Amino acid sequence: MLMADILAVAMHLIPTRCSRALTPLLCALGAAAVLGACARDRGAPRGQGESVFELFTPPSPAIAASWATDPFDADKRLRGLLLLANAPFGGEPPYLRMYELATEDGDPGVRAVALRALAMHGTTDHAAMLIAGLTDANQLVRWEAARGLQRVHAESAIGPLIDRLSPDREESTQVRSAAARALGQYAQVRVVERLIGVLSDRSLAVNDSALASLRTLTGEDFGYDARAWFDWSRHPQTDLFAGRTPYIFPVFERDPTIVEMLLPWFGPPNEIAAQPIGMPPQESVAPAGRGG
């Protein structure tokens, strides 16, 4: 498809008031097509590589798999794993095995992507790998491990997640925040007590996650008032979990970009919210409504 064809199609699809603003982008896409055509092998058969859209077509599964297992290039391993993890077939057994092996990769970026992939496609059998990631030397790996445990339910994760809430043990506010959110699955007194304590964390992000988990676990809402939460939790007539609501792990969601509107198969990588894998079904209970 030539640049003129792209412009014609895009101008037809995009409102007139936006067309002027998008013209530079469309021209850039056309220029990319010209450069791509100049760069391709002149011996290639006609009809191959002549569309600008081929520049935006992701690598084939075979190429992604070869990148994911490249022993010499960590960047390729990372890109390959990421492509496979985000593919519809990314949960097939051969790819799960790739992710498992990659959790021990020498590159922290590869380890982080491997844990993300297991959180997306794994089972409760992979909880141990995610728990191990909570103590990784790299902050990004620890963050992905904590986020992964928002999606995988395992009672054995409670203690390690609680440990990550302490600024003395975990300097990253992102990790502490993700751990606080993951604990919203577990209706245990020690969890509620620790989350109340986390409301005094210096990071607002950590406070927000702790409050979200407390609301889920109790159905109450005393805001960031740790004293009010403490007094309520210690009242003799308080049933901590009487108003508990289902835990739904947080997901990534955004509107499509201009390029994604032009190339529909590129849509934003939005996720579907759900309960963690391995979590027993739970019915919602109406909140008691004592919070203020």
Core attributes:
292 residues, mainly alpha, elongated, disordered N terminus
Description:
The protein is mainly α. It has a domain at 3-39 and 46-54. The chain is built from 14 helices and no strands. The protein has helices at residues 3-13, 16-39, 61-68, 74-85, 93-102, 108-121, 127-133, 139-148, 158-163, 173-182, 189-198, 204-218, 226-234, 258-262. The longest helix has 24 residues, at 16-39. The N and C termini lie far apart (60 Å). The model is unreliable at 1-19, 32-37, 39-50 and 284-292 (pLDDT under 50).
Task: Work out the helicity level.
Answer: 40-55%
Topology, number of strands: 0
- The structural class is mainly alpha
Distance between the termini: 60 Å
Write down the secondary-structure element order: HHHHHHHHHHHHHH
Broad shape: elongated
Number of helices: 14
Low-confidence stretches: 1-19, 32-37, 39-50, 284-292
Strand content: under 5%
Biggest β-sheet: count, sense, barrel?
Answer: none
Integer average pLDDT: 81
